[in-house]
Amino acid sequence: MSASADTIARAAQPAPARSLARERWNAACRSPTLIAGLIILAFWIVCALFGADITPRDPYADDLLATLSPPSAAHWFGTDQLGRDIFSRVIVGARDILIVAPLATLLGTVLGTALGLCIGYFRGALDDVAGRIIEALQALPLVIVALMALAAVGTSNATVVLVIGFVFTPLIARTVRSAVLNETDLDYVAAARLRGDGALAIMFIEILPNVLPIAIVEMTVRLGYAIFFVASLSFIGFGIQPPSADWGIAIAENYSLIGSFWWTVLFDAAATASLVIAVNLVTDGLAAVFDA
Amino acid sequence: MNDVRATAGAAARGSAADALRFEEVSVTYRTGRRVRQVLTGVSLAIRRGESYGLVGESGCGKSTAAFAAIRYLARNGRVSAGRIRVDGRDLMALSQSELRRLRTQSVSMVYQDPGKALNPSLRIDRQMMEVFEVAEGLSGDAALARSKEMLARVQIASPDRVLRNYPHELSGGMQQRVIIAMALSTNPALLILDEPTTGLDATVEAEVLDLVTRLRAEFNNSILFISHSLPVIARMCDRVGVLYAGELVEEGPASRVFGDPRHPYTVGLMRCVPTYGLRKNQGRLETIPGFLPAPGSITGRCVFAERCGNATERCGREAPPPIALEGHVSRCFYPERASQLPRQSSPAASSAAASGEGAVRSGEGGATRSEAALSPPLLRTKQLSKTYLVSGKPFQAVHDVTIELWPGETLGLVGESGSGKSSLAKLLLGLSTPDEGSAIELSGDALPPRAEARTRAQLKALQIVFQNPGAALNRSQTVRRLIGRSLRLVGLVGGAREARLREIAASVRLTPRHLDEKPRQLSGGLKQRVGIARAFAGGPRIVVCDEPTSALDVSVQSAILNLLVDLQADQKVSYLFISHDLNVVHYLSDRIAVLYLGRLMEIGPSEAVFEGPHHPYTEALLSANPSLEHQGGKRIRLHGELPSAANLPGGCVFHTRCPRKIGVICEREEPPLVPAGDRHAIRCHIPTAELGRRS
Q1: Contact A194 B522 (CB under 8 A)
Q2: Residue by residue, what is the 3-state secondary structure of chain A?
Q3: What's the fold here for domain B2-237?
Q4: CB-CB: which of A3, A17, A187 is closest to B466?
Q5: Where are the domains of chain B?
Q6: Which of A4, A144, B2, B28 gives a 20 to 30 Å CA spacing to A183?
Q7: Per CATH, which fold does B376-689 belong to?
Q8: pLDDT at residue B72 above 60?
């Protein structure tokens, strides 16, 4: 089967083939998963950037005369224990998580890619030692590791970014490493050695561009986890701190009321879920595009 | 029981229906919104007991035809027109269960890569017995007995051992035998062989082809034999169809098609194959200009017109119908002119130039010999060895190889896969480190073993053209960057660098337009040109060519070989040319070294190595070499498996397979490299005089 598909690919070659970038762009435009994910993601990014300007009410204003009122024309998503408008709070609540989670993922991806390149390129003892350490780290529940680290250094948006970034580093390094192992077997790496390129040049100029698609897909996978991770930390009080309107904090404050006042938790939870789903849709879309 | 089956089969086959019949078959593939027609109006018929060869370059639709014949096209493919009949039955009208019965009982297929056709996690007995259980409903013991019987029939000496093995424990040739045995188990009316020997060594290929010939006589199946190799098809088939861009351009009895080709594509293809014994100083290789068009892109005119030297204005206006000649069919308006197809390189001019050059070269050869005492060779290895440790056991990839390479000469390196050719190349280039006691000298100076420890000048001097141009070029870089980065070795920058870059690109016949493209936008031949340009960018003195054309089609191969010859004449580089194709090695090389299990078995001038006296191993290699001219004749076959380098036989390493073994001395003592005339040496206990050609 693949033989016949292969035949076509080869036969098509002599005609000027379109560039890879163009082909990927076309594939991206045709991918409903990617587009759906991007639309949801764009919605939350707009909320994060301009939330304060588009909310119908002040998300931080108490109204003690209208506490815990159910969804209505005045308060679409109802109000919480202090009478704050939940609809407005959900909108501005996107802000902190959309700063912390992507930054943490980016940090983890940059460090992880660099580490993965080194391990995959040098192999040998470095690979053995790093491999064991990564496995040991993976055996621990990540939330516990992060919790202990945050308890030690104190919690703030910056420390959450650092801790999640460091926790993700070995995970991303492992994925990048296996991609690099495949690349180093290819003859272009030998050709680079034969023209006197140093290890750094080979890793970052020759190999990196070829493993970047894998690193990017891995980054979006991790972004989904990061959002979940930050929300969990906020929920247990070690993530984003009040007075932020963060969704995780809101759920933590209200989950004891869920039996009678479901709206105080449902919309924040749905927002978190929609963001994670959007990121996962983008991941699936990108993986297909890079594969094409 | 088997006899009964065979008779029943023969009786069934007595009916008039052809084993396979294509009637104006067209196949299309859909990718995205584009629909491509890959086969166009192909008509052919394979009679009972006939062996039919389908030949053509990659992308011509050979495999598509094979998959269509069993209705097993990729999901995006469909037969858009025409009718396919297997054993007289309309394939398209069959229900799923009928189709399944047809595939299990009437048609079998053998694929190119035997390693991928067997399930790696099941033992051979399980996989073979399944055939009998499914096709004939036999129970375990009966199926096992039949499996054993089939393996014996494909000349496997110890069926019991093979049945207990997993696929990875068998060599490629053995795997292919098992698959052929499985394919023949149901005694199918039609056996489809899709490039069955392409991944195998010449010696193993020869054995497998012998086997197929023998089995055909025994089973009397019809065979559809697909191959890109003209000599193989010529040897194996009664009738031949030549496919080009999805059209059957010529068809007829093999002897007529190859003896008196009447389509310019067939003529061009035959001329591209290096003729047995042709040398670079005797003339250039013929090429076919231009590229294979995208499938289905040409309608309403001749598909070959734009690459054809005989094309007239009529060829561009209407598509030629199949024209019947005596005994065969050609899709050409001017079949009578095919043999006068103009040559790409005018033979007179090029042979004059080449013979002049040849004279210079042989003159040089003489000079090097007298200079030998005075100046050191360009490259010399002394007792070069490489031992790997594979799970604690030593594995000798290269053992005690001493060779010299002189300026401007080509040393051909031949041997089966696993003989250490590529390992030797890696050692020379510094990509792997040799054992203690080995030495490599460049112009008399010791060369550090690792590439990283070599100076720029040393790196510059030794470059390589890799086998697989796809893997050898960084896919994320443009051609400009790929070649340009190698120019850093010579310290060129700015305008001078761009000028030199264009010069190099022009010297490998790349146009400036190609400089901004990335590898995936180039065809295999163009990619290999980029690979060659990169090797030559720094002005090397030695270029290792590691099977540079084995991944390419013949018409592309000849253009690349011509280029290598031109570059050598122009830049006076030395080549270490590795190839399994003896005709190619002979065409290009001044001297030839024969490796077996990492040891040098024979080394000498090309003529001496080819003409003999030669080592028994060289003799077997030459005999297995497929060639269009030398059909028939006496064949020397190597039997048994290539021993593992981790478990070498004692004495002469070749004694386990040697057809001329003389006795215990071969098992006890490793023979020395005995001089056998002018710069010629053979590692064998048999006296040189006796090694001369046996009649």
Answers
A1: no
A2: CHHHHHHHHHHHCCCCCCCHHHHHHHHHHCCHHHHHHHHHHHHHHHHHHHHHHHCCCCCCCCCHHHCCCCCCCCCCCCECCCCCEHHHHHHHCHHHHHHHHHHHHHHHHHHHHHHHHHHHHHCHHHHHHHHHHHHHHHHCCHHHHHHHHHHHHCCCHHHHHHHHHHHHHHHHHHHHHHHHHHHHCCHHHHHHHHCCCCHHHHHHHHHHHHHHHHHHHHHHHHHHHHHHHHHHHHHCCCCCCCCCCCHHHHHHHHHHHCCCCCHHHHHHHHHHHHHHHHHHHHHHHHHHHHHC
A3: Rossmann fold (3.40.50)
A4: A187
A5: 2-237, 376-689
A6: A4
A7: Rossmann fold (3.40.50)
A8: yes
- What pLDDT is attached to residue B16? 59
Nearest CA in chain B to A190: B431
Task: Give the chain A residue nearest B74 (alpha carbons).
Answer: A1
pLDDT-based confidence at residue B642 (cuts at 50, 70, 90)? confident
CB contact under 8 A, A186 and B472: yes
What domains, with CATH codes, occur in chain A? Answer: 20-291 (1.10.3720.10)
What pTM value is reported for the model?
Answer: 0.84
Q: What is the pLDDT of residues B458-511, one digit of tens each?
A: 999 999 999 988 899 999 999 999 999 888 777 777 788 888 999 999 989 888
Q: Compare CB distances from B73 to A4, A194, A209 and report the shortest one's residue.
A: A4
Asked if A4 has any chain B CB less than 8 Å from its own CB, the reply is yes
A15 touches chain B (CB under 8 A): yes
**C-alpha distance from A112 to closest chain B C-alpha (Å):** 21
Instruction: Report the complex ipTM.
Output: 0.80
Nearest to A194 among B459, B467, B477 (CB): B459
Across the interface, do A209 and B64 touch by the CB < 8 Å criterion? no
Contact assignment for A11 to B77 by CB distance below 8 Å = no
Task: Please name the residue of chain A whose CA is at the shortest distance from the CA of residue B295.
Answer: A11
